[in-house]
Amino acid sequence: MGVDIIELELKYCERCGGLWLRARGTPQVYCNACVTAMEGPGAARRAKPRLRLPGNSKLEIVRKEQTPAVCMEGGHA
Fold this sequence. Notes:
- Strand 1 (8-12) and strand 2 (19-23) form a beta hairpin.
- The protein has a two-stranded antiparallel sheet with strand order 1-2.
- By secondary structure, it is α+β, with helices and mostly antiparallel strands.
- It is 10% helix and 13% strand.
- The chain has one helix at 32-39; strands at 8-12, 19-23.
- The chain has a domain at 8-45.
- The chain has one helix and two strands, in the order E-E-H.
């Protein structure tokens, strides 16, 4: 009984960032959905997708004002 073994590796799509499995050693860098989308009409005019952090979290940057310390008296170093 001959059993064929296909080795797979986990790969990130270089277009959408999704995870997918590909046959080990193949040069494919895009998932099947992105390959189909890029071959469709108008695909060359589309802009690259914006990079996003995983999850639905927003990053809020808060700037705190700091008062500089001024010393009028004291010794000299």
